[in-house]
Amino acid sequence: MTVTDMPAPHATVTQRLVGQSAARGEHPALVGGPAAWPGETLSHAGLAVVLQTAAAGLAWRGLRTQDVVGVYVPDAVSYVLAVHAIRAAGGVPSPIRAASTIAAMADQLTDCGARLLITAEPLVPVALSAADGSWVRQVISFDEAPGTVPFWSLLSRGVQPPVCAGPAELGLVPYVPHPGRGLQAAPVTHAQLAAEIGRLSEPAPVTSGDVVLAAPPDGCLREYTVLLDLALLQGATVVAAQAGTLPDAARRHGGTAAIVPAGTAMPAGLPLRPVTVAC
After folding, report:
1. What pLDDT does 4 receive?
2. Looking at the domain assignment, is residue 2 inside a domain?
3. Average pLDDT estimate for 239-255
């Protein structure tokens, strides 16, 4: 059983993504990403299947509705898969800033009550150290790293359509720096996520014909999340990239747009536009 048509008024972003992706067939959705990825390209239809099977696996491992799960991954593909698998299972992703120290990560995981953490190489050693200083009891990795559960093992526990959630329920718990107080939770509801996608759809137009290179930001994980969702909901292809390798990635994949950290120079001589700029 898969979800192919979710009711629009109260559907979460993840429900919309699964429904729309299932209907888009073999058009590429995600390119690149984890080293252990079983194929460089995942279609939109394949994305819908992976999210629903990963949701079933997370539920089997004990994830319950509104449980918060840490997300500490190095690329856009891992990020999309982790965030939406968590939401599809009814959980709430809490993305961790790339610049966070182990102590700050452990504090965030403890503060949000996370018992699960999703990560990938080369971040696994840091993730495990942070988990040791928190309430996290399971670390799931996109790589078969010692001390972790392989993400791909989640895909053998059946299929679970995305869990329904009310507009006022939490859909994301990013942490932002506050002077003198360290990182503080800045929770975002499902309604707020949907509204931000709508707000950005005009100034950052994306179509199904776009190939969007996505480089991880140093901060602003809320905006990063919204921009990735905007691209995928429009049927675009998202390519995992790094800010320093945009020219090569653009030539290799025919990139037309990019999600990049603030201050990143767009490559000259390439038809590559910023969707908008994440900080």
Report:
1. 39
2. no
3. 91
